[in-house]
């Protein structure tokens, strides 16, 4: 069964999709390809218009079956991502019921986000790739799945001030590290894009750019801090990622139990 789709497939099958999926895709298209061209992430806009982006629809993020579906989506995407184009990203829309949207605050979504990653990595069938540190406090750490390092950007319905991290459903944009080969501080193109994106973020959001937004590999840059940004300038003191722990010289998976309601809604 197909779980990763391109823009053409979604638009051809649009009328057959469940209402929440149609709404999520419509909101995404209107946001990233707005007529005024204000969306901050220029490569994401280019990826959408050129059909390099891929999309997956996943159920309620609080349910174990949804994380299993996410694992399958990311596994399938990883296998073929290098054929999709240089601006590719896996955009994951989660079904976000009204009870979540009505009661969850940014902090609740943040805890849910890390619960998803902790349970997702527990389903990884491949070893952590060599060359990527497993300790998030290392400046070259990146989340990895199926042997591929990924940068993840999360948007939620609860974000209000940081509009660039607001979306009508819980959304994850999962970007393979290789798409940044030409977009980094060592290239003129990368430096130009960074300057443009920072300026567009300043115009787009109603709060200043988050201080955790930095280049991958800088000694004072930590990728995990950039995955989920607060609606202000708050930054977590410790990374919640728990994929591996050291025990008697060997590595073991750490499973984080699911809860129906994370954050302040847990028992």
UniProtKB/TrEMBL annotation:
InterPro entries: Uncharacterised_YqcI/YcgG (IPR014988)
Superkingdom of the source species: Bacteria
Protein name: YqcI/YcgG family protein
Species for this entry: Lysinibacillus capsici
């Amino acid at each position: 069964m197909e779980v990763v789709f391109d823009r053409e497939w979604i638009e051809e099958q649009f009328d057959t999709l469940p209402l929440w999926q149609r709404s999520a895709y419509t909101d995404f298209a209107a946001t990233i390809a707005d007529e005024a061209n204000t969306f901050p992430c220029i490569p994401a806009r280019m990826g959408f218009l050129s059909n390099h982006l891929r999309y997956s629809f996943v159920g309620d993020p609080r349910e174990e079956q949804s994380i299993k579906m996410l694992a399958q989506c990311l596994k399938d995407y990883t296998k073929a991502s290098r054929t999709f184009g240089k601006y590719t990203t896996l955009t994951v829309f989660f079904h976000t019921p009204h009870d979540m949207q009505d009661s969850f605050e940014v902090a609740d979504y943040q805890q849910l986000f890390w619960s998803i990653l902790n349970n997702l990595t527990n389903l990884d069938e491949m070893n952590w790739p060599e060359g990527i540190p497993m300790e998030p406090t290392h400046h070259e750490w990146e989340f990895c799945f199926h042997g591929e390092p990924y940068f993840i950007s999360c948007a939620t319905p609860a974000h209000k001030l940081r509009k660039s991290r607001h979306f009508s459903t819980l959304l994850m944009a999962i970007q393979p590290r290789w798409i940044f080969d030409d977009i980094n501080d060592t290239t003129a193109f990368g430096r130009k894009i960074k300057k443009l994106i920072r300026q567009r973020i300043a115009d787009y959001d109603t709060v200043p750019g988050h201080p955790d937004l930095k280049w991958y590999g800088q000694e004072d840059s930590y990728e995990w801090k950039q995955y989920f940004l607060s609606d202000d300038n708050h930054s977590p003191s410790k990374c919640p990622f728990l994929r591996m722990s050291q025990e008697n010289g060997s590595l073991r998976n750490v499973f984080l139990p699911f809860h129906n309601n994370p954050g302040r809604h847990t028992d």
